[in-house]
Amino acid sequence: MSARCLIPAAGLGTRLRPATRSVPKELLPVGTRPMLQWCLTEALEGGFDEIGIVISDAKPALEAYVREQRWKDGLLPALADAARVARILVFRQEPPTGVVGAVLAAEAWTEEGPFAVFLPDNVRIAGPPPMTAEMVAEAGRRGVTLAACHRVGPETRHYFSDVGRVELDELAPAGASSRVRGLQERGDFGSFRAAPEGSWRLLPRYAVTAPWVEEGRRVAGEAAIAGVESDDVVVHRRLVERGLLRAIPWQGTIVDAGHPAGYLWAAHLLHEAGAGQRDALDRGSTADERLVSIDLTGL
Fold first, then answer.
1. What does the DSSP 8-state code read for residue 23?
2. Buried (b) or exposed (e) across 69-92, using 16+ Cβ within 10 A?
3. Chain segment 200-250, per-residue pLDDT in tens
4. Binning pLDDT at 50, 70 and 90, where does residue 114 land?
5. Which pTM was predicted?
6. Higher per-residue confidence, 75 vs 173
7. Which residues are 91's β-sheet partners?
8. How buried is 225 (Cβ within 10 angstroms: 0-12 exposed, 13-18 middle, 19+ buried)?
9. Three-state DSSP state, 297
10. Complete DSSP assignment for 99-157
11. Quick check: bond before 249 cis, omega within 30?
């Protein structure tokens, strides 16, 4: 059975305008690689061999990038074999109506078993994959939504948007999951704390199972009536109420590059990394075929 991952990429990228009026957000470069290639690299490293990408007719350049397999240009040698056998599917969302609508745009594909969702404007720069094929399989066995989460410290809290803060039931050991007992609503004041211990942030790297799809359909229907976008935060908050959202703490560096401050911060992190490692990661150098992410622990 395939290990499946879905990448919603139909949105308009309004937070990065005016740049995204000319270039799809997912093709904006972080270093010398488009955001989408960072995301596909992460998915391949995580063991996913069937990857769906949700696009819209408003992004012909993005569709050409995917269908012409330009995303393989400069791919890390360590992932060449995985890229060769990976199956890439394209789904359409017309018009773009939010993340939930994008997931449901895959229609029957969503009914074939659990799958991961990766939002490509969150760019993983260092650390292991936050979500793997094994984690998705575990979520399917347990019938829960499993999401990765990470600490946002006071020194970096301004680089993240106004959503994602979670309260965990308990601190789980490495590799174990905690029940999420609270998830911030989008736009709530005080997204991430200035306190030294920081806050937990739910990553847009999560495993979708049947309860998520069930709640997603309800949220999408309500959003259509109200004339607003269907937000996955609403789905996750309802799963919290049902005790079906679990979080796995993750250590690494991931950047919300979908808004100006985060986008510039991602470029800064790459600039500060060692030149040799940066070249191997950013350009697919053959110097170290095992290298996938940069070690930023010294920054």
1. S
2. eebbeebbebbeebbeebebeebe
3. 888 899 999 999 999 999 999 999 999 888 988 899 999 988 989 888 888
4. very high
5. 0.85
6. 75
7. 54
8. exposed
9. coil
10. HHHHHHTTGGGGGSS-EEEE-TTEEEEESS-SS-HHHHHHHHHHTSEEEEEEEE-TTTG
11. no
DSSP state of 271: H
| Burial (CB count <10 Å: 0-12, 13-18, 19+), residue 128 | middle
- SS3 readout for 67-86: HCCHHHCCCCHHHHHHHHHC
Domains of the chain, CATH where assigned = 4-281 (3.90.550.10)
**For residue 194, which of 150, 251, 156, 249 has the smallest C-alpha distance?**
156
Predicted local distance difference test score (pLDDT) of residue 116: 96
User: Does residue 299 register a pLDDT over 50?
Assistant: no
Task: Report the alpha-carbon distance of residue 200 to residue 250 in Å, rounded.
Answer: 10
Q: Which residues contact 227 (CB under 8 A, 6 or more apart)?
A: none
Q: Name the token pair of 79.
A: 């992932």
Provide the H-helix boundaries in 159-285. Answer: 210-226, 232-241, 260-272, 275-283
pLDDT at 129 over 50: yes
